[in-house]
Amino acid sequence: MSSAKEVKPAKNIKGTVELPADKSISHRAALFAALHESTSHISNFSAAADPQSTLACLRQLGIEIEAKGQDLSIKGKGRYGFNEPEEPLDCGNSGTTMRLLSGIVGGAGVNCTLTGDESLSARTMKRIIDPLRAMGIDIYGREDNFAPLKISRKDPVKALHFELPIPSAQLKSCVLLAGLYGKNTTSVIETIPSRDHTERLLQLPIELKKDRKIIGSDNSMVIPEQSYRIPNDFSAAAFWLVAGSIHKQGSVRLTDVGINPSRTAALKILQKMGAEISMVKENREAIEPFANLHITGSTLQPVTITEKLVPNLIDEIPILAIAMLFAEGTSTIRGAEELRHKETDRLSALSDMLKKAGASFKEMEDGLEIHGDPKFVPRPASYNSYHDHRIAMSAAILASKGSEPSKVKGGECTDISYPGFWEDLKMLTN
Ligand code: S3P
């Protein structure tokens, strides 16, 4: 049952948060551990609903997973070790599960169907259907675009030389994972960088040219064991980085946060805006680097975000829009049309939120123009989450700056990436 969460005005925001584990890395750690030939031990695996959907699908495919709290042992069975599932694989709300798993089951030739919830069933899958078909995989979707996806394969996997038409890490990963089943090398060409967890964790060969990166995969490549501790989620950290900076006396400490450069463009943007964020205990040697972050109340300046930067802060745009509301002047986000294809149309959801708050802004086809004011006080409102976790959390941080309580409808959807979000908000604002 959907319920509304109440957010009271916060006088302050202060404390140390134990963030959820990184969602993108959790999905990949589990999937790649299943492809490895023996057991991987993963610690700090995310308890959020999306990565748990990936685990449930792997179990349906016959992979044994032992969980002790957030520590997992996954008995990998190699690239071809999957059973044909009796029931459709339910990817829940998770685009990463559906798109990455399609590459794997398609490559492995597992006869199966992938389904998802209402939101996932409305998200385009054409972007993966076309390249997977070109690789010889039989993949069919509703209207040749949407889940349920029916996947099987009769012919050997054909190598593909694929220049990414959109800078999407899910699409890049899907093609590279299917490529792991081909005799000849599949190469994915990336001109605008997106998150690189797949390349890192699978240790795929990379050729760096002046204006492009070429990543390869084929069936001779050994899948490494996936035994490591997953850092905490930078995308979850971003909510507190903004909350800590827009509250005058804010002081928030975040521990073991993933600082992979392909994920942290929002940190650079916030620093450019004048946010006082310090980084301590950096560990850049780890396969996925991490550090502790400390943010204090700051005076923010406006900023412009352009297309090239969008993939490295795609999930942080909703909360960056909230930061922009409190900057001294006009900020702009352009080249972010992809936000219309997320769990909901995030540009339109943001417009609805800003309108309800009484903000001054303009929605564009590919972004937003936001007229900020450090003295802005959002009107009390009943915000709609559109069942989108990042919209719900952004609305909550916005509402914390109000002078009266507000509501976030369907607020429990934060469990998709951040179980415990509402408790953390309460703890920080008490
Ligand atoms: C993700 C990639 C991004 C991001 C999503 C997670 C991933 O999606 O928005 O939350 O783990 O690869 P796209 O690849 O569609 O941009």
UniProtKB/TrEMBL annotation:
Residues at the active site: D315 (proton acceptor)
Alphabetized Gene3D superfamilies for the sequence: Enolpyruvate transferase domain (3.65.10.10)
- Record-linked Pfam families: EPSP_synthase
Q: Where in the cell is it found?
A: Cytoplasm
GO biological process terms held by the UniProt record: amino acid biosynthetic process; aromatic amino acid family biosynthetic process; chorismate biosynthetic process
Q: Which GO terms describe its molecular function?
A: 3-phosphoshikimate 1-carboxyvinyltransferase activity
Primary localization: cytoplasm
Q: Name one GO cellular component term.
A: cytoplasm
Domain Enolpyruvate transferase, first and last residues per copy:
8-425
Q: Which keywords, in A-to-Z order, does the entry hold?
A: Amino-acid biosynthesis, Aromatic amino acid biosynthesis, Cytoplasm, Transferase
Identify the CDD domains for this entry. Answer: EPSP_synthase
UniProt lists the family membership as follows: Belongs to the EPSP synthase family.
Subunit composition and interactions: Monomer.
Q: What is this protein called?
A: 3-phosphoshikimate 1-carboxyvinyltransferase
Question: Can you name the source organism?
Answer: Halalkalibaculum roseum
Report the gene name: aroA
